[in-house]
Amino acid sequence: MANGFKSIFTVLWIGGLWVIGVMVAPILFKSLDNRVAGQVAGQLFRAIGWVGIVAGIYLFVYWLWAEGLRAFQEAKLWLVIGMLTCTLINQFAVFPIIAGIKPGISQAATGMFGGGLEQWHTISALIYLVQTVFGVIYVWRDAR
């Protein structure tokens, strides 16, 4: 049963990352006004972030339970830790900064480190990209 939940959480989290990031968000921005598309995409990214937190914690516990402390010698556990870290950084650090910048939106808006909305979106997108690459590697390694 635990292995079944591992598979379900893996599909939900990693599959969801790819579907939202590669398919849904680009379609939203092609189909809707940028402001509306950004709001919907933001809600989707926050939702998959919460899925990632739950799935990441489950997978972390699963691998520790299944492998014991040997799990720390396996790349799969470190990939889960990396993905979970990316999720937590985006969810609790970057997304709140973006939300704080949006009310006073302008190209000249600057925040911490001189970054405006565009810069924080880029930082978030790079974190998301790293997370999805970790996800692909995790799935590839877990298939062996």
TrEMBL record:
Chief place where the protein resides: membrane
Ribonucleoprotein recorded as keyword: no
Transmembrane residue ranges: 7-29, 44-65, 77-99, 119-140
InterPro entries on file: TMEM205-like
Keywords (A to Z) from UniProt: Membrane, Transmembrane, Transmembrane helix
The TMEM205-like domain, residue ranges: 10-102
Source domain of life: Bacteria
GO CC annotations, alphabetized: membrane
Subcellular location: Membrane
The protein, known as: DUF4149 domain-containing protein
